[in-house]
Amino acid sequence: MSMDVHHLAGRPVIIGGGIAGLMTALHLAPEPVLLLSRTPLGADASSTWAQGGLAASLGDDDDPELHLADTLAAGDGLCDADAARRVAYAAPAAIEDLARLGVRFDRTPEGALRLGLEAAHSRRRIVHAGGDGSGREVMRGLVAAVRSTPTIAVVEGVEARQLAVEDGSISGVLASCSTGPVFLATGRVILATGGIGGLFDDTTNPLGNCGQGLALAARAGAVLADLEFIQFHPTALDGPGRPMPLISEAIRGEGATIVDETGRRFLVGVRGAELAPRDIVARAVWNHLSKGHRAFLDVREKPGATFARQFPTIASACSKAGIDPARDLIPIRPAQHYHMGGIAVDLAGRTSVPGLWACGEVASTGLHGANRLASNSLTEAVVCARWVAESVAASPGGGGKPAMAPDLPAPDPRPVRPLLSRALGVTRDDAGLKEAARALLPLAQHHAAASDPAAVGLMITIAALLRQESRGAHFRTDFPHHAAVARRSQITLDAALAAARELASSPMLESAL
Question: Is 183 helix (H, G, I), strand (E, B) or coil?
Answer without folding.
Answer: strand
